[in-house]
Design brief:
Blueprint (H helix, E strand, L loop, with lengths): L1 H14 L1 H6 L8 H4 L8 H13 L4 E8 L5 E7 L7 H6 L3 E7 L7 H14 L6 H4 E6 L4 H4 L38 H13 L3 E8 L8 E4 L8 H23 L3 E3 L14 E2 L8 H7 L3 E8 L4 H21 L1 H13 L6 E9 L5 E5 L2 E5 L6 E5 L4 E5 L1 E2 L1 E9 L3 E4 L4 H9 L5 E2 L4 E15 L10 E14 L4 E4 L5 H8 L14 H4 L8 E3 L4
Parallel strand pairs: 3-4, 3-5, 5-9, 6-7, 8-15
Antiparallel strand pairs: 1-2, 2-4, 6-9, 10-16, 11-14, 12-13, 17-21, 17-22, 18-21, 19-20
Helix pairs in contact: 1-4, 4-6, 6-12, 10-12
C-alpha cells in the first residue's frame, strides 16, 4: 500500500506545481528505499521522481540527451546556478562541469539509486556550496531499456535486489560499455553527443562488480590507456583518488581501492591484482583519450544492496567534493592538455599489463552463501573479514607496439561510414576543394585476420604491415583530418590501421579491406 501511495505522490507532484510546493521533497523515496531494498526503481518512477525534485529547487533543471533503442528519452538532470539545462547556459558560467552516469549495465543498479538519493538531498538544499564552483550533471538511467527487462535471474550470485534487476545489454543486445568507439547503439551515440555538446571536465561512471572475493566495499579506476595525457593520470593517481580513499575510510570506515581481480584457479597468469582493459571501448578509457578526467566506480556485488548504494553515494559525494575544492586547477590542467599537440609522439596501438615495482597489500575477504527467497538461487554476502595479502599489482598498461602520431590523415570521400563516425565523435576535419598531389605514407597490408566469432555484433579484425612512402593524387572531397586538435589522441586511435580498438579493429571497413593490398586512409608524417 505504501508503494502505491509513494508513487502516486511522485506523479501528482510532477503534474501539479501547487502540490509540489506543499510536498516535502525529503519524503521522496526510491523504490529501493520503500521496498526495504528488495527492488529497484523502474524507468517511469525515475522520470516522476526527477520531475518532482526539479519542482522543489531552482537549482535543478531537467532535460534529455538522447534516446534508447526502444525510443525512451534519456534524462539529464542539471544542478547549479544556471537558468536552464542547456549546454550554452552551463558553458556561460565558466564553472567546472561534472557529469555522473549510472546504469550503463542495467543489472548494476546501485548507482541509479544512489544518484536519485543525491538528487533528493540537492533538492532539499544540501551541498549548496558545490554550485559556487561546479555545474553537476546526472544521468541516473542510461541503459533505460535494459532497466525494464527485470528478472530475478539476472546477475547471478549478486546480493540483491531479490525482487530482480535489469539486464546487462541494451535492447539490441549490445554491451554499452563496449560501444564507445564503434557507436553502434543509439545510447552510445547519445552519450557521445552529450560529451561533444556539454564537454564535461569530469565524468564518473557507476557500476557494480563481482569476481574476486575481496574486502573492499567499492573499487575504482582512472583511465587505463597509456595514450592518456600523463597530467590527467598524475592528478588522479597522485592526489584525487588517494584523497577520496582516505576521506572515505575516515568518515565511513570503509575500504576502497583500485579495481582488480586475482586470477582464477588454473589461469596461466602470474598471481597478482589485475585491473581490466586499456582499450577505449570502455567509458573511462574513451573519456581519457578525449583529454577529460574519468573515474570508474565499481561497488562490490557481494555487499548487500543497501551497502552498495551507500558506498556508491559516498564515493560520488567525495569525488564531487574534491572537484569543488579544486575546480579552477582542474580546468587549468585540461586547458593546457587541450592546447598541446600529440603530433610526433610515439603512441600505443597495442598494450599489455605493467607490473608494479613492489608487491602491494590487497584486502581479500570472505562471503557467506545465502539463497534468494524467491528463486532458491545462491547469493553471496560479504563478511566483515579483511585478509591483507601481499601481491604484485597489474593496475596499469604500457605500450607493446607504437606508431609515431602523424600530422594529418586523409580519408577518401567514398569511406562514408568512416566519415560518419568521425563526425559522431566530434572530430574536426575539412574537405579538399580540388585535387592535390602530396608526398604521404600508405600502409601496406601484409596480413589481415578476422575473428571467427562475432563480438558485439562484429568480427574484430587485426591488420599487420608497414607504412611506405607514396606520392598520391587526392581527389576533391577528401577529408583532411589533423591530429593537432583537442581530440588528436582519439583521432589516432580510431584511424591507425593497427590500433587494437579503431575502426579497422571493429570491422567497420571490412567492405573495402577485403582483398586490399593497402589501407585506404593515408597519412602525412609528423616531420613534414
Amino acid at each position: 500500500m505504501y508503494r502505491i501511495f509513494a508513487t502516486l505522490v511522485l506523479v501528482m507532484a510532477a503534474a501539479c506545481p501547487a502540490i509540489a510546493q506543499e510536498y516535502d521533497v525529503s519524503e521522496l523515496q526510491t523504490r529501493a528505499e520503500f521496498s526495504d531494498y528488495d527492488e529497484t526503481t523502474r524507468y517511469a518512477e525515475v522520470m516522476s521522481y526527477l520531475r518532482a525534485a526539479v519542482l522543489a529547487s531552482d537549482r535543478l533543471h531537467l532535460t534529455e540527451f538522447g534516446y534508447t533503442t526502444e525510443g525512451r528519452t534519456l534524462p539529464l538532470l542539471v544542478y547549479g546556478d544556471v537558468w536552464d539545462a542547456s549546454a550554452a547556459e552551463i558553458a556561460r558560467t565558466g564553472k567546472t562541469r561534472v557529469f555522473v552516469q549510472a546504469n550503463i549495465h542495467a543489472g548494476e543498479v546501485c548507482g541509479k539509486e544512489a544518484l536519485l538519493m543525491l538528487i533528493r538531498e540537492l533538492a532539499s538544499g544540501a551541498y549548496a556550496d558545490w554550485a559556487d564552483s561546479l555545474v553537476l550533471m546526472m544521468a541516473p538511467i542510461y541503459n533505460a531499456d535494459g532497466n525494464e527487462r527485470i528478472s530475478l535471474y539476472n546477475r547471478p550470485r549478486q546480493h540483491g535486489p531479490v525482487g530482480g534487476m535489469g539486464q546487462r545489454p541494451n535492447a539490441q543486445g549490445f554491451d554499452l560499455n563496449r560501444d564507445h568507439m564503434k557507436l553502434d547503439s543509439p545510447e552510445a551515440r547519445s552519450l557521445v553527443w552529450l560529451m561533444n555538446e556539454y564537454d564535461p571536465h569530469v565524468l564518473i561512471d557507476l557500476h557494480t562488480t563481482n569476481g574476486t572475493v575481496h574486502g573492499y566495499h567499492l573499487t575504482y579506476s582512472p583511465p587505463l590507456n597509456p595514450n592518456t595525457d600523463g597530467r590527467i593520470i598524475e592528478l588522479l593517481r597522485g592526489r584525487w583518488l588517494p584523497e577520496v580513499r582516505t576521506t572515505v575510510r575516515e568518515n565511513y570506515g570503509w575500504e576502497f581501492y583500485y579495481y582488480g581481480n586475482v586470477p582464477r584457479a588454473g589461469s596461466a597468469r602470474e598471481p597478482g591484482w589485475y585491473t581490466f582493459d586499456h582499450r577505449p571501448r570502455f567509458n573511462n578509457n574513451y573519456v581519457g583519450l578525449r583529454n577529460r578526467i574519468a573515474i570508474l566506480s565499481e561497488a562490490y556485488a557481494y555487499a548487500s544492496f543497501e551497502d552498495r548504494i551507500m558506498a556508491t553515494l559516498a564515493f560520488v559525494k567525495e569525488n564531487v567534493h574534491f572537484a569543488h575544492r579544486n575546480a579552477s586547477s582542474i580546468r587549468a590542467i585540461l586547458e593546457t592538455v587541450d592546447l598541446e599537440s600529440v603530433v610526433g609522439l610515439d603512441l600505443a596501438v597495442r598494450s599489455a599489463f605493467a607490473r608494479s615495482g613492489e608487491p602491494v597489500e590487497i584486502l581479500l575477504g570472505e562471503v557467506d552463501e545465502m539463497r534468494n527467497p524467491y528463486t532458491g538461487e545462491v547469493m553471496y554476502l560479504r563478511k566483515e573479514v579483511l585478509k591483507p595479502t601481499s601481491m604484485y599489482e597489474y593496475g596499469t598498461f604500457s605500450a607493446t607496439e607504437t606508431e609515431r602520431a602523424p600530422r594529418t590523415y586523409f580519408v577518401p570521400p567514398s569511406l562514408s561510414i568512416v566519415i560518419e563516425r568521425l563526425g559522431a565523435h566530434g572530430i574536426w576535419y575539412e574537405e579538399l576543394s580540388g585535387p592535390r598531389d602530396l608526398a604521404l605514407e600508405r600502409f601496406r597490408i601484409d596480413a589481415s585476420q578476422a575473428a571467427d566469432r562475432p563480438f558485439q555484433g562484429r568480427h574484430e579484425r587485426t591488420l599487420s604491415g608497414v607504412y611506405e612512402p607514396v606520392v598520391q593524387t587526392l581527389e576533391p572531397g577528401t577529408l583532411v583530418v589533423p591530429v593537432d586538435q583537442k581530440l588528436g589522441r582519439l583521432v589516432y586511435y580510431l584511424l591507425e590501421p593497427r590500433s587494437d580498438d579503431g575502426l579497422v579493429a571493429w570491422a567497420l571497413m571490412d567492405d573495402v579491406l577485403e582483398g586490399a593490398e593497402h589501407y585506404p586512409i593515408l597519412r602525412e608524417p609528423a616531420d613534414r
